[in-house]
Specification:
Layout (H helix, E strand, L loop, with lengths): L12 H7 L12 H8 L2 H8 L31 H8 L23 H11 L5 H20 L7 H7 L15 H13 L3 H11 L14 H15 L4 H10 L1 H6 L18 H8 L16 E2 L2 E2 L5 H10 L3 E2 L8 E3 L2 E3 L10 E2 L9 E3 L2 E3 L5 H13 L4 H13 L6 H12 L9 H10 L1 H4 L11 E2 L2 H11 L3 E2 L39 H4 L12 H17 L1 E3 L14 E5 L12 H13 L5 H12 L9 H17 L1 H4 E2 L1
Antiparallel strand pairs: 1-2, 3-6, 4-5, 7-8, 9-13, 10-12, 11-12
Helix pairs in contact: 1-24, 2-22, 4-6, 5-6, 5-23, 7-8, 8-10, 8-20, 9-10, 10-11, 11-15, 13-14, 16-17, 16-18, 17-18, 22-25, 23-24, 23-25
């Protein structure tokens, strides 16, 4: 695979697909040669994807950033009255005093395209109704309504409602697969899309993988972990730090649970959680300025912590274990199975196993003999107030929601809001998200023509977007959508990262590429290669057309019976009536899936490919469905869709 292929206009996957008349081929009839031709499209896509990840402006010096994070409002328009009322009534995000109420250059979408672009950054999908709402309320007004929107059903409650809390021969107290069912339901069907999009981003910073949590009721433990991230998505970062530190899933995943104080025989506290808490979840490996740029000494980045800091901090997190006091265990199959409620209770400390030695880290001293609770508070407060946290977390959230390489000024503005939401509150995640999404670098139409702006859509985000956009439903209500991590599927699934370092690292650059030569980053490229691209195309060919085949959708467990069927299918209710008009159909898909970012040549290629097989108003429904599915597949195979700007 050549990452350095360039041309004046890259050949796209759409072109290759169109030339092979894929437009009317569904997965049940596609010839192997067609699949192979689709797979070869990676070269064209890669050429375009080299634009992934640039910043929206030249890097200024820190002194040029100024103090204000609120550019002057242009003559475009003031926020509509209804939007202003929503901002004034916002209970989170700093309210009117925060980024929601700041004067800006881009206040109201000038077009449906602008509204759709905003929605696809803020959440997973864009609908006609949501586009109209953003245009009516303005960006800030709409976001304020989402911050105050009630949360959907928790993953924990969903598992219980679907029978996964039962202790029986299905062994749900050990099986992990229902975790995937609950998470996909959360992402696809929850009404609070912004909250869930932020929670997914947080899950790639605070990484706990289902693959690495092996204990009783692990599915409930992971469901509770997701619920913790979801509940914290609009909360305070300090509260989130506390909750993830004491969560049983984190305790099991990074060995905090069971870590004991030093002993005369040479035993030392486990350092895993202490190290990753600093490296991945709060301050990073090196010291940063407020603009996210590493601070250097003699041309070498200054480390943010030392091994001595890790050794000392590890003492703070000793003596913790699951809280099994809520109910007596149940004897089952010769095992003493704990009540599942422990999987969502904060861990508790056994003072006899907690280290009471003096702790010195990051310039803070915790005196010897300090209680476990007081030591934890001092340690987490120290990390929370570290100057690295704002730019470190802000930059990663910008990468997940908007662009891989935000400008230094963009990071500075967002980190400033993290430090103070406008009401003197540090660590307001909702305000930080608002600052990211409302910033002029994110909203300005000029960014669309800036080389390098944007990022590669993650595979799992693409699937959720498709499902939400086209009304995926489970006929039997099973929602048995499994782990999608296989190389023959998406190669990615929520809470299934292979390591604590997520699916990809925030500073990853594909080697020997134009991206690397330009000094830019493209994190999502770490999970991109010839195999993953061809697998995505082949897999989505079947999913888009037929949906998901489910074994025994009338049963909660994984099994097979006479009810086996394509239980989860997209309705395409608004697209099927447009099937006879290829131009109108593609125009709709361009707006909803790509915020009208498909170029005119790409649109023409898709339309021409579709028109090669005529469809009329009197054509059978299956023919209309074939055309709609073909159009969706070609849009989602296009490099101009894959790179989100």
């Amino acid at each position: 695979m050549s990452y350095t292929e360039t041309s004046s206009r890259p050949t796209t996957e759409v072109e290759l697909a169109g030339k092979t008349s894929v437009s009317t081929v569904d997965s049940s009839t596609a010839a192997p040669s067609t699949r192979a031709i689709l797979a070869t499209a990676v070269a064209g896509a890669t050429s375009f994807l080299q634009a992934c990840g640039g910043g929206g402006e030249d890097s200024p010096t820190p002194s040029s950033f100024g103090v204000s994070s609120t550019p002057e409002m242009s003559a475009q328009a003031a926020i509509p009255a209804s939007g202003a009322a929503a901002v004034a009534g916002a209970s989170v995000g700093g309210g009117k005093a925060g980024p929601l109420g700041a004067a800006r250059k881009n206040v109201i979408p000038a077009s449906d395209s602008d509204a759709a672009r905003f929605l696809l950054q803020a959440q997973f999908s864009a609908s006609d109704k949501e586009i109209a709402s953003v245009r009516s309320l303005g960006y800030a007004g709409w976001l304020a309504t989402q911050f105050d929107a009630p949360a959907g059903i928790t993953a924990w409650d969903w598992l219980n409602q679907h029978g996964y809390a039962t202790l029986d021969s299905n062994l749900f107290h050990f099986t992990p697969y229902q975790t995937d069912f609950a998470l996909w339901y959360q992402l696809v069907k929850s009404p609070d899309g912004v909250r869930k999009r932020v929670a997914l981003a947080l899950s790639e910073i605070f990484c706990v993988s289902t693959n690495g949590v092996d204990w009783y009721w692990l599915s409930h433990m992971m469901a509770s972990w997701w619920d913790t991230l979801s509940a914290g998505a609009f909360g305070n970062f300090r509260t989130l730090l506390e909750n993830i530190t004491l969560h049983p899933a984190m305790g099991k995943y990074l060995n905090c649970r069971g870590s004991q104080k030093e002993s005369a025989s040479g035993r030392q506290p486990d350092e895993n959680f202490a190290r990753e808490l600093m490296q991945l979840m709060t301050i990073g490996l090196v010291k940063f300025g407020w603009d996210g740029q590493p601070l250097t000494s003699g041309g070498v980045p200054v480390e943010s912590y030392t091994q001595d800091d890790v050794v000392n901090l590890a003492r703070v997190f000793t003596g913790y274990d699951f809280n099994l006091s809520s109910a007596a265990p149940t004897s089952f199959n010769g095992l003493s199975v704990p009540d599942k409620n422990f999987a969502r209770l904060p861990m508790v400390v056994n003072p006899a196993l907690h280290s009471t030695l003096e702790v010195k880290f990051l310039g803070t001293t915790i005196p010897a003999g300090t209680s476990a609770e007081a030591a934890r508070k001092i340690a987490l407060d120290t990390l929370f107030n570290h100057p690295n946290v704002g730019p470190f977390i802000s930059r990663q959230l910008i990468q997940r929601l908007v662009t891989s390489n935000p400008s230094r000024a963009y990071v500075f503005r967002v980190a400033s809001v993290f430090a103070n939401n406008g009401s003197g509150v540090r660590g307001d995640i909702a305000a930080t998200v608002a600052a990211i999404l409302l910033d002029d670098e994110a909203r300005s139409p000029a960014s669309l023509s800036t080389y390098g702006f944007g990022h590669l859509r993650e595979p799992m985000v693409r699937l959720v977007q498709w499902a939400r956009t086209f009304g995926l439903e489970s006929a039997r209500g099973s929602w048995k959508l499994p782990d999608q991590s296989l190389s023959t599927q998406l190669g990615q699934s929520p809470l299934r990262s292979p390591t604590v370092f997520n699916f990809f690292r925030p500073n990853y650059t594909p080697p020997n590429t134009a991206i690397a030569a330009g000094g830019q980053l493209a994190p999502e490229f770490q999970i991109v290669n010839e195999s993953t691209v061809s697998s995505y195309l082949n897999y989505m060919m079947g999913v888009v057309r037929n949906g998901f085949y489910v074994g025994a959708p009338d049963k909660p467990q994984i099994t097979s019976n006479a009810s086996n069927a394509f239980d989860m299918v997209a309705s395409y209710a608004n697209e099927l009536p447009l099937a006879p008009d290829a131009g109108a159909l593609v125009a709709r898909l361009n707006l909803l899936l790509a915020a009208n970012q498909l170029s005119a040549p790409t649109v023409a290629l898709i339309v021409n490919a579709l028109n090669a097989n005529p469809v009329t108003a009197t054509s059978p429904d299956v023919v209309k469905l074939n055309r709609v599915a073909s159009a969706v597949l070609m849009v989602m195979a296009s490099s101009e869709y894959l790179v989100q700007k």
